[in-house]
Structure to design on (50 residues):
C-alpha cells in the first residue's frame, strides 16, 4: 500500500503535477548562494572599515 502511494506520488512529480517541489529540491543550492552573498557583504564591510 505504501509502495503504491510512493509510486503514485513519483509519477505525479515526474509528470509536473507538483512543480513547486523543484524549489525545495534545490535548497542546498539556495543555501550556497545565500552564503556567497553574505561573504561578499562581509568583504564589502571590511573594505569600508579600512
Amino acid at each position: 500500500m505504501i509502495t503504491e502511494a510512493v509510486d503514485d506520488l513519483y509519477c505525479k512529480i515526474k509528470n509536473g503535477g507538483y512543480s513547486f517541489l523543484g524549489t525545495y529540491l534545490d535548497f542546498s543550492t539556495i543555501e550556497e548562494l545565500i552564503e556567497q552573498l553574505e561573504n561578499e557583504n562581509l568583504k564589502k564591510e571590511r573594505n569600508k572599515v579600512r
